[in-house]
Amino acid sequence: MTIESKIRFIRGGLITSFQGSQIKKLQHQGITTSGPMDNFLSKIGNITLNNDEDSICFEICKFGPVIQIVKGKFIFLISGNINFNIQTKNGIIEGESNQSYEVNKDDIIEINDTINSNYAYLVFKGKIKNINDKILTSSIISSSLGLNNGNKIYDEDLFSINTASNFKHRKIIINLNKYYNKNIRVINGPQMNYFKIKDIQNFFQKRFKVSKNLNRVGIRLLNNAIKPMFSSKFTSEGIIRGSIQVPSDGNPIILTAEHPTIGGYPKIASIIMADFCKISQLIEGSFFNFEQVSIKIAENEIHKLNKKMINLKKNIVYL
Amino acid sequence: MFITYKQTSEQSYLIDYGNDINIITNKKVISHFKYIIKKNFYFINNVVPSFNKILIQFDPENKSRVLKLINKLKLIDKINESKITKHIINICYDEEYALDYKKIEKAFSLTFEEFINFHSSHNFYVFMIGFMPGLPFLGLLNTKIKIPRLENPRLNVPKGSLGIVDNLSVIYPNKSPGGWNIIGKTNYKLFNNKKNISLIKPGDVVNFKKVNKKLFYKNDY
């Protein structure tokens, strides 16, 4: 049984957007893959609520929205390190991450700032009406395409949801700290030979700093410039999420969820898929290291992570 | 038809068809690209053709199937010449839109009018679509003159701008940051937002036709 509910964004938040699964089979049209920046967290939230792991959710960047329930009820969970509270007729409840809540008409969810991280996910039971796109399964804010026409959520946006009428509340017991260390594993990029041996050594030995230029398109790094020897000879080619491009000034750019589909700078390395969530959460000014690993290790790590996701349900505790 | 291939991550292979930017090499790329797209393999997430390479992004659980496909591509050595669509694109080269015309005059030692005649006399081949939805990479201008990217890329290149770097041209489908030298503007629709398809395809041919400002405004956005 489902019931129709309605939510209103009193405040849209800094950049709140709909994100579901990564968009497939359209990169040759210039359409990027998009999807959650930290798809480890969004999957944890969805699995806990017994949704498909890539179900559409709200990605919250840095400073979250304030949501009022206008009609019906809203069953949700917030995955990530973020302050939030729920305001009801009976008082204010301080929110706890990775635990489900049910709010009713006139209740308010106030989501504030992320703690030592960039992204959190508001995952919910049910389906948002009139925004589902079977092909473009996430918002692409940089191209104004996809869910919600690629728009971020604005103040006063209203959405209708078909939500479950009954739900057994739960939380997931998981120690996220062990996944989010500052050691980012990479494999050699296709143009690593465009760099001097000394610069390659520096790339792995010296710390990088996350600059203020970080968003859903890319993360610019500082503190360890490594100039390619012949960037002008490089012809543009297809790129993927996690590729690390180095423009002529030597400051690397990590390509993130809404990366351009084709890039014209040499790529020194690629972040392994299992570690992409870690880099997406490093805040401006963070220092971190790259660790060189083999493709075999990268393959094993993603297999391990996929397996972990399947077994995650064992960590759910019913309330 | 390809020279080599390399696994570039746990989710991607890069197939290399040769070093240079030329139409013959790109036709090999496009031929294999069209073969893969037509088959619509469930284990392939994306296929991205570029000047001389194809990037295959796949589900890591299906690596062996991708390797099998690459081995099959080795055996497909005939360029499949499919139907070519010719696009005639109106360009207004007025100074208001040709933001870098002075740089072009200097580089080519021509008046901008002479350069326009030179540029618009070419048949431009579409090498690939990418960077952003619907952006075509076009070539090749018959020149050896080098016109590098702008040292300081613009934060906002206007929608529809025609840019050149060396012997290549692009058209920006939307307002965007960019470092190409801007020589004009079009109101030609490059991307269909409803169907999510680029209206110009790799392998197509583009001709530019000079239009005056009055006519351009009449059909402007």
List the helices and strands and how they pair.
The complex is a heterodimer of chains A (319) and B (221).
Chain A: E1 2-11, E2 15-19, H1 39-48, E3 57-61, E4 66-71, E5 73-79, E6 82-88, E7 91-94, E8 100-104, E9 108-114, E10 119-124, E11 127-128, E12 139-140, E13 145-146, E14 158-164, E15 170-172, E16 183-188, H2 197-205, E17 208-214, E18 218-222, E19 237-238, E20 243-245, E21 253-255, E22 262-263, E23 267-271, H3 276-280, E24 287-292, H4 295-311, E25 316-318
Chain B: E1 4-9, E2 12-16, H1 23-39, E3 44-49, E4 53-58, H2 63-75, E5 86-91, H3 101-108, H4 112-120, E6 124-129, E7 136-139, E8 154-157, E9 161-165, E10 168-171, E11 176-178, E12 181-185, E13 191-192, E14 197-198, E15 205-210, H5 213-218
Parallel strand pairs in B: 5-15
Antiparallel strand pairs in B: 1-2, 2-4, 3-4, 6-7, 6-15, 7-10, 8-11, 9-10, 9-12, 13-14
